[in-house]
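#struct-help
A.M.: can someone run this one for me? Single chain, 734 residues.
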Amino acid sequence: SANSSQGCLIGHQFDIPFGTAKFESWFFDGTGLGYIGDFEDSIEGWVSYPAAYGTLVTATGGQTGKCLAITDAGWTGGSYKEFTSGFAVGETYTLKISEKCPAAGTWGTAPYVFVRFLNSSGGIIGTENKKAITTDNAWHEYTLTGTIPSGTAKIWIGQYMYLNATSTYTYYVDNVSFVTSTDVKARSSRQGLQVRCLDGNGSVKAIYYLGTYNADPGELKSYSGGYYKVCGAGCTGWYWPLAKCKERTAGWHKFTIDFKPYTGAGNEVEYFIDGVSVGKVERTLDTQTYGLNMVAYGFHYRVNSVGWFDDCAMYAAAPVAPTMGTPTALSTTAIRWNITDKSNNEFGFKVLNAAQAIVASAPVSNGTGKAVALDETGLIPNTAYTRTAKAFNGSLDSSPTAAATKWTLSVPPSASNLTCDKATGLSTQDTFTFTAVGGFKSGTLAKYLYAWTTSATYTFTGSEEVWDSGDLILKAADSGSYYLHVKGYNGENVANGTLDLGPYAYQAAPVAYKISDLWPLDDGEVRWLHNKVVTAKFANGFYIEELDRSAGVLVISNASVEPGDTVDLEGEVGVSNGIQRALIASYVEKVGSNAGAIKPLLMVTKTVGGSSPSDQTMGTTVSVGVYNIGLLVRVAGQVEHSDLSDPANKYFYLYDGHRVMPEAISEDDGDDQFGGLRAANIDNSYKGLLVRCGSVTPPASGMVSATGVVTLEMIGKHLAPVLVIRDSNDLRSY
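D.P.: on it. Structure tokens below:
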């Protein structure tokens, strides 16, 4: 840009910074022509001299690759290139041209190089500038300088010769440079090559610059090298140790800034102009920390005049691969990959998975032989991960390290992920089932070592039993307090955490061989019952009975059993509704099926319920005979009265000729454990046995048989027997 108020900073920012690199650019200093002829791809518009019969081609054997080869057949020879624009009258010019010409014979006009100026009509202006060519078939460089004269419309550069014979010969041209310009030493231009270091927020941390800079200590007639660094108050700013390092001249110049690995020696950055070193400066630590992530062409202030750049390049090498060390499991979700740096030109390191995705990275270690740790997070517990690592310099990666595999730690045992089917404290059951929540797999753990002891503490030796599948079922050998001690491991056999569960206090309960053995027991005593048959199931409990129909009892439990099931059970002796003897079960196990084994006992209503068998177990106060509360019985008689007012709690009175209730009782409120019927609304003037039917509709009249379990209710001031049917099949009309 020629706008003196407009900045000029063009270039490229690298997504991945480089640790070391060499940056270069060709810069044309001047205002006019800037032709460079290297003939690598074509003859570049050169033509045979008029009246000559030369053939022009590109050929190998040039000074730097290919060159221009001109073959003439004698007499007039030569070639030239014409320019019709890009220059101005009064500009200085410089032609540099290399020629290789043989001694072809006797020259009428010896070969020479020239710069010729022509007007708009094609006429030659003044005397052309020329210089003789040495004809020894060797390369020679020639330089012609001067000022473009007034009236110039065209400029020719080239060579001419005349041979006094007909002879075919070939001469060669290479490395042509023709530059026209005003005095570059006076041009207010601030252009060149710069490399920047930016932090993660895009803020400048360092700038390295080589080019024109007119402010002190630089000057317009020289090139300067300097750098900017951020180092705190009184330190941050520009430094120009290479101010005025080379005289400024018109034409194309190659600027190079070469960043070597950071050492802190203060000489890691070297500046070159046209391939020649002009000095070294310090490399700031920021350039190592944040890397080299931007190259630009032009100074970061207004450049004041037009500039041209070409063949901009950056050269960098991939670093040497690090070596993979032994990884470390940091936690259930993190692994540290340990590597050793083997290079000095990397910007950082990265860990990759099998899909070559980056899972962890770390900055450069500032030197070979250094240990580097890269932490990968967000992993799954008790899972094996295989990774490789690479060093990188910008977008250039080293070869990968050997692969390493490491397991994350297992989830440590806790009360939330290791449970028991029994609460701590006293139990009369000797079997304890422990569950590893989530099982043994990736995401949890591989195994537990465990010890089942009577001590609250334990020291693991590594020789304990292994638990690695299913539930762990343990038994108490005798009465006492027991503890489960566990230690968790991952798939790599690395431990992570221990847990002590307990105490689980076991008290062997005495066995009650018959249901009737419960009658003299106090509330709260614990007993086992074995091989008892379920006769009825209600909403919040069930009834069991002896096979000989000698006794039955209510069991308070939500166990999943059905009539006909044979069960073992344990529980505390207690009462239901404060009056009816019951067993409050803590353990129920179905051990078989005996459907149909218990037939209902046929009874007359005046003996249903029976009297109390002991001081601890209440019987009825209105019936006589042996205690039969809890038995499955059948009675028959006439429907005395039925009540359907509550759809969920229907009932009727069955009269078989025997009065069950006294003629006068109070209307006190009673409450039944099963069905929730209230006696207060029952007309006590009826003589028969109260039969509760739940949602089953009883007959309104006639003869009927009813099967059900005998329960005990407080009706008025009396403990009265009540028959509770199980379903509609328990009623039969005649």
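A.M.: thanks! Residues 665-681 have pLDDT under 50 and may be disordered.
D.P.: also worth noting: The chain has one helix and 51 strands.
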